[in-house]
Design goal:
Layout: H1 2-11, H2 25-36, E1 47-52, H3 55-75, H4 79-89, E2 100-106, H5 112-119, H6 131-149, E3 153-157, H7 164-171, E4 178-186
């Protein structure tokens, strides 16, 4: 079982080219269930998943991303910066051509230490927490590993977050939920070669 898990981890790829076959609803539910079993800070489970298969909605989301790309590009004074940004940003709308896109949202929460201090009137504004983002990242990893185990391909996308407000409006998500990432999903049309990995850095004892 351990060897199977290691193999699953090592053979997972970021897939960006998909077949047109739809993903059955029961498979989508299995993916979200796997994501929901991830660890989370203070067991807050601060995630929500929105599955989008409608081509028109995906096109609207992609248009919002293109608008955000254009806005950012127009602010750049350097022509070289604009060119490099455009070359990078062309990957931000890969999700439009995937059969399914899962949008991951989170709701920030007070860390345990802040709640404890507030209970005794000892509020400290300097205490911040990235717990909600970290928790969602763990959920996404679970989802991607289950994606691979079921013979699907997926791509974890943070680039589209530049259009977070626009995407949330399209999906009619209430403002307190913030977009963390998009996951493009489908049956792989092409599986990329693994990128090189440096040797693990041993921990400091």
């Amino acid at each position: 079982m351990m060897d199977e898990l290691v193999e699953l981890i090592k053979t997972r790829r970021s897939v960006r080219e998909f077949k047109t076959d739809p993903i059955p609803r029961d498979v989508v539910l299995r993916l979200v269930e796997a994501a929901s079993w991830a660890p989370s800070g203070s067991n807050q489970q601060p995630w929500r998943f929105v599955a989008v298969s409608n081509a028109l909605v995906k096109a609207q989301m992609a248009a919002a991303v293109h608008d955000a790309i254009k806005t950012i590009s127009l602010r750049m004074k350097s022509e070289r910066a604009r060119e490099e940004f455009a070359d990078y940003a062309r990957y931000f709308t890969v999700f439009e051509h995937a059969p399914l896109t899962i949008c991951v949202f989170t709701e920030a929460y007070q860390p345990m230490i802040a709640r404890l201090l507030a209970r005794y009137g000892e509020e400290d504004e300097d205490i911040i927490s990235t717990g909600s983002i970290q928790s969602c990242a763990a959920a996404v990893q679970n989802l991607l590993l289950m994606t691979h185990a079921l013979g699907l391909g997926g791509c974890w996308m943070t680039g589209p977050v530049i259009a977070a407000e626009g995407i949330a409006d399209i999906l009619e998500v209430v403002p307190r939920w913030q977009l963390v990432c998009l996951i493009a999903l489908g049956y792989p049309a092409k599986i990329p070669e693994p990128p090189p990995r440096p040797a693990p850095i041993p921990p400091v004892w």
